[in-house]
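This section describes the prediction task in plain terms. A model, or a person checking by hand, is given the sequence of a single protein chain and must write out its three-dimensional structure as a string of tokens. No templates, partner chains or ligands are provided. The sample shown here is typical of the held-out split.
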Amino acid sequence: MPRFSIIVPSHGVVGRLSLALDSVLAQSYGDFELIPVCDAPGSPAADVATGHAGRDSRVAPVNSPPSAGLSGARNTGLRAATGAYVLFLDGDDTLAPGALATLDARLTKSGDVDVLYFEHERTPWWEGEPTNPAAPLLAKTPADAFSPAQAPQLTGVQLPAWSAVYRRAFLTELQLTFPEGRFTDLGWGGLVTVAAERVAVLRSVVVRHLLRRQGSRLNLPGEHHHQLLDQVESVLGAAHGLAPERSHALFEQLFAVVLKTASRPERLPSGHRAFFRRAGRLYRTHRPTNFHAPGGSLGVQHRLLASGAYTAFKALRGANRSASGAAERVPRPRMLRTRLRYARDLRRPIDPNLAVYCAYWGRGYACSPAAIHAKASELAPHIRSVFLVEPDAVDAVPKDVEHAVIGSRKYWEVLARAKYLVNNANFAEGVVKRPGSVHVQTQHGTPLKKMGVDQSTYPVVAAATGSFAKLLGRVDRWDYNISSNRHSTQMWERAFPGSYEALEYGYPRNDVFYTATTDEVARVRRELGVPEGKTAVLYAPTHRDYQTGFDTGLDLEAFCAAAGEDVVVLLRAHYFYDQGRAKSSGRIIDVTGHRSSEDVCLAADALVTDYSSIMFDYANLDRPIVVYADDWEVYRETRGVYFDLMEAPPGPVARTPEELAQVFRDGSYAGAESTALRAEFRSRFCEFDDGLAAERVVRRVFLGEPPETVPPVIPLAERVPAPAATLVRS
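The expected answer:
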């Protein structure tokens, strides 16, 4: 009998399933069976699971139809499990390194327990730091194994099914299975904790849960929200006879979830009143003796639900939502006092010596806004510059750079009074474009894929873009739009029609490709951990709108082995998947979270990408580029492109992993044909990038110099790119 049975439902997450399975197979503790639950034999997920099973006998796939849902998949896995303890893992989550060894040690110390709860990380796909929501709850529990009565707040309702490991004999003896329908984690968590007699906690992260960019599907509008009450009723029915402390805590936590849904009518397209009335009946039927509702607004909602006062609850809900709507209505910030100050500051004179910068929606000090900021500090020191960042990016801002946290009082104050506003994306809709202010849009790449209003004919992309009218409203604020080549100028005019002036000055972020020294290139390679004497290949795949989550699309370890002993890979995923931490292994160096994509490019001897705009920037370095186009036709049809990359690539095109490895193995990636293709590509797309872009912007925009006096673009043949690592090594 294995120590652990690890059950991994895979429906809808095939793109990341291999990462989940690999995170289990890479564990230092090996006494487990891994049970992927796939839709059907021959499905994409089944192919992934079968491939892993062929490499490791501990992998034992089973099948469950999609119609059975998440609960059916988990129950199918339970029936196949033979381990002493059962652990659930969603197909797009991963086990932390060393997790199973830590679990085994804790179970050995605590003895046989029915449930061992543990911490987990919730990691955003696109930006932000991971959070550990279970830590505060588990911190209040006894250090040793204990009876649930000793920690009544630990009801199981607030923890997902994959935040615990369960003794299989306990589940089998009590015939505990996942309830059918939606919100199955809530029902499962409550039922298991009610039945458990001896539990323990592990104050260590075991599972890393990937937050969906779109949010939880359970929060989408639909009739499925009525199933929440089915789960609540099931748990309350099983909770009769619990000690008062436990029943009170369980009751309060369950109805906190119910009231959260009741107060959001957009989640229930119909049946608001029916939901409320049924919830009220459950409340009155199962309310524990001597239960006291919490204080404040939540307590008022408890009392209205208990009395069935739907009209009053609706009025309270409307008042709360009106207040919330007023707080979020453009251009208002959230807090009342800050709203009033913002309105007042909008009436104050613009500060002619104040500039505000933002990059990638506040992700940090980066890209062209950072390059312009640095040059303005040199050429226009009289201008006060403030960089806008999210709270989790503050620590990454250089110490000598003044910043404001997005949403803070200072944030709204500087936005209201700044003369110059520089962004590589867009400021929030709430930002008012004042007469006399100057908005500079720097962009963050040369467009291969369709952008802006050109996306409207591509349904998958258009759905994610949202209102094109609102998009054009944001474009109306632009005074200048920076371009790095005539192709970009033309495409921006199509994609973002507006009255702005195009500045064909080059991208300021690319200046460093002509100004970096030999020492700087060597320093970056050392910081990234590139071994001395190795050929660093930057692999930078772009985002796929038609895929869920990030998949490298390539077995990088296999590529390294086939390409040659001196090859290492710098993996840089699209910034949507920046988790803020490196996941390097072997000859793969994960640089996704590195602040500067420019530094990463400087460190690389060659670039492998698919359709990412990084190829246009990297071409400035005049180093080899290989296009890995294994799904070009699909990408072109679903995302839309402005030109046929296969007809005008910057270097060799590989369609399969074998072809990709071959061009490195035989050296053709840097051969004469590759050089010729790159030269044509550079002449078209490196037209204005020459190391002086930031200076041009500062002189024209900040210092008000006439266009004819800004530094002219240096001809391509006269430019000297930063030295490659081969020169550094020699």
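For orientation: Residues 582 and 590 are 5 Å apart (CA to CA).
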